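The records we work with from here on pair a chain with its fold. The integers have meaning only within a learned vocabulary of local backbone shapes. A complete example follows; check for yourself that the lines match position by position.

:::
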Amino acid sequence: MYICSLKIKSMETSILTSKGQLLIPKRLRNKYGIKSGIKVVFEETTNGVLIKPMNENYFKSFAGILKSGDLKEDIKKMKEEEKLYEDRKLNLKKSKK
């Protein structure tokens, strides 16, 4: 005997147009504050694609992602680390020749 448990609150469908457009059902637009002109992000997951509005909550989810709290300093460090990584890759290629 197999028991399948799905955690689906509700399911609504939409049809993709020939232009690649989807209509987000009104109930979901209202619930998640997706209004005309708002940008959304398409996030790939192991189960499919998640559509999220790029609203204040979306940007708040990035809070604390910076190491030092100083954007310029963190970008500078990331660029330095990236340059070191690229230099190491170049040196490995040269040593193999």
Q: What stands out?
A: The beta strands are 40-45, 48-53. Helices lie at 26-32, 56-60, 71-96.
